[in-house]
């Protein structure tokens, strides 16, 4: 028996959708038994006082989904469908602990190190580049591109990093990917399975967890005034070093040439040793010229260079890259990867943006803007806190470390900062392993998302969080 009630109100579903839903429900509940003939299209249309086309659309959808089958010159019949194990469907509501809630950040001031200032991004120029790229290479958008990324894009990136970072490579050595972590996961498949990876401590916690989740052996190396401690490297005896020499994350230490040469000599001493250079925000150096990449000094092809456009442009672009030494490039090609993780249009737009000169123009503008914001923030901090703070690692990048001479712990300060509606992080977040902690609280202060009018208010709130009653 098929009973259907049609809702003719303006807010109701289309009539054919209502018929479809009623018949489908009747089949699943076995109100209509298998192989039962359903009313003809004309008969049901007359009963419901609707058009034959509406009934036909519903029946055709039910037919295509397998709820009905048709017998020539006889009509439509109910398909044989197994019943569900449970008559009552379980709750489809997501458990409360898995639900995501967008936090209300109105009134908050961000000292987050993870953000960039998109207010100054030349969006119109980017859209023009996107349109030019699409018009010029529209046929490419309909094809699967090379697993390493479009050659012409890699060619542009190789020229860019040669000019700006001194990186020596061919376009063939570049692999594009949707983020550094994705590329790192790919890289671990090319390196020996039993390799021991050593990371800076404090360091990039997300990368550390990624390696552990992949089942890789990990070790941590503490920092001295020059970066990764050579004594600890010799003690740990890793195969792979992961380092951020241009602006150590999160301490801000810039690795001098002497330590860079020591690392390169370490890698050259024994076959199978590699250095992964994460050059995540190298574009922003304020008090001197940009320091060339570690890879530019490498004479034995032991450095794997990684870069990203997340800091220089915006994180949502999701285009990062790595430069593989020839040996690892051969291993990559032998595995016949077929990855296509970066938007083809995004790649083409990026190429146009760089080739047109807009990229370097934007970097020059943002470098001056970030330098001004950094100086104004440090000035406000020194004026408010006096000699009770010590600023570290402020010569490059989009964040620096501030150490406080106060009895409160980092945990207490963060709790009070949260009450003050301040978005910031403490050094403890980036300690990969316990040990070597400072006896003074240290915070990571990013300034990329700060607005000039927020600086003094943000510093005042921070003072209350650290020293207030």
Describe the structure.
One of its GO terms (molecular function) is transaminase activity. Its cofactor is pyridoxal 5'-phosphate. This is Transcriptional regulator (GntR/MocR family) with PLP binding site. The strands form four sheets. The protein has an eight-stranded mixed sheet. It has a four-stranded antiparallel sheet with strand order 12-13-16-15, with helices on one face. The protein has a two-stranded antiparallel ribbon with strand order 1-2. The chain has helices at residues 15-28, 41-48, 52-65, 123-136, 151-165, 180-190, 205-213, 230-236, 257-268, 326-334, 344-355, 358-385, 410-419, 455-467; strands at 68-71, 75-78, 109-110, 174-177, 196-201, 217-224, 227-228, 240-243, 274-278, 303-308, 320-323, 389-392, 399-404, 422-423, 425-426, 442-446. It is 38% helix and 14% strand. It has 469 residues and is of the alpha/beta class.
Please tally the β strands and state the result. Answer: 16
**Unreliable stretches:** none
In the sheet with the most strands, the strands line up as: 4-11-10-9-8-5-6-7
The DSSP helix count reads 14
Sheet-strand content, in percent, reads 5-15%
Largest sheet: 8 strands, mixed
Class computed from helices, strands and strand pairing: alpha/beta
CA-atom Rg in angstroms: 30 Å
* Mean pLDDT over the full residue set: 92
The percent of residues in helical segments reads 25-40%
- Distance linking N and C termini: 75 Å
Shape: globular
The string of secondary-structure elements, in order, is HHHEEEHHEHEHEEHEHEEEHHHEEHEEEH
């Amino acid at each position: 028996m098929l009973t259907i009630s049609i809702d003719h109100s303006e807010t109701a579903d289309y009539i054919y959708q209502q018929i479809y839903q009623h018949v489908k429900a009747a089949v699943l509940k076995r109100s209509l038994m298998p192989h039962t003939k359903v009313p003809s299209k004309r008969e049901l249309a007359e009963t419901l006082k609707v058009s034959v086309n509406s009934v036909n659309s519903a029946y055709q959808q039910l037919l295509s989904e397998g709820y009905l089958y048709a017998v020539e010159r006889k009509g439509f019949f109910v398909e044989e469908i197994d019943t569900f194990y449970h008559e009552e469907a379980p709750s489809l509501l997501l458990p409360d602990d898995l639900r995501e809630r967008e936090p209300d950040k109105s009134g908050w001031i961000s000292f987050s190190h993870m953000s960039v200032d998109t207010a100054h991004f030349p969006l119109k120029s980017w859209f023009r580049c996107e349109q030019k790229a699409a018009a010029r290479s529209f046929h490419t958008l309909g094809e699967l591109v090379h697993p390493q990324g479009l050659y012409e894009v890699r060619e542009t990136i190789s020229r860019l990093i040669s000019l700006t970072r001194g990186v020596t490579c061919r376009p063939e050595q570049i692999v594009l990917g949707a983020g550094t972590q994705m590329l790192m996961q790919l890289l671990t498949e090319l390196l020996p399975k039993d390799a021991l990876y050593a990371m800076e401590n404090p360091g990039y916690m997300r990368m550390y967890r990624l390696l552990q989740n992949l089942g890789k052996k990990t070790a941590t190396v503490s920092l001295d005034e020059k970066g990764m401690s050579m004594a600890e490297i010799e003690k740990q005896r890793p195969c792979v070093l992961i380092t951020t020499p241009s602006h150590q994350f999160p301490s801000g230490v810039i690795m001098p040439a002497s330590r860079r040469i020591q690392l390169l000599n370490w890698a050259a001493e024994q076959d199978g040793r590699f250095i992964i250079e994460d050059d995540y925000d190298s574009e922003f150096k304020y008090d001197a010229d940009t320091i060339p990449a570690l890879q530019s000094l490498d004479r034995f092809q032991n450095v794997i260079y990684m870069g990203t456009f997340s800091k220089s442009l915006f994180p949502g672009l999701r285009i990062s890259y790595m430069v593989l030494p020839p040996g690892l490039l051969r291993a990559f090609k032998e595995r016949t990867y077929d990855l296509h993780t970066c938007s083809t249009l995004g790649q083409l737009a990026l190429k146009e943006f760089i080739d047109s000169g807009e990229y370097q123009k934007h970097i020059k503008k943002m470098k001056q803007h970030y330098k001004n914001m950094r100086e104004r923030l440090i000035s406000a901090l020194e004026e408010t806190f006096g000699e009770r703070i010590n600023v570290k690692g402020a010569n490059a990048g989009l964040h620096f470390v501030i150490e406080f001479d106060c009895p409160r712990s980092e945990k207490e300060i963060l709790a009070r900062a949260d009450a003050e509606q301040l978005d910031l992080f403490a050094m403890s977040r980036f300690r990969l392993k316990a040990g070597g902690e400072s006896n003074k609280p240290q915070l990571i202060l990013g300034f990329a998302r700060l607005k000039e009018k927020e600086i003094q208010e943000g510093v005042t709130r921070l003072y209350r969080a650290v020293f207030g009653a």
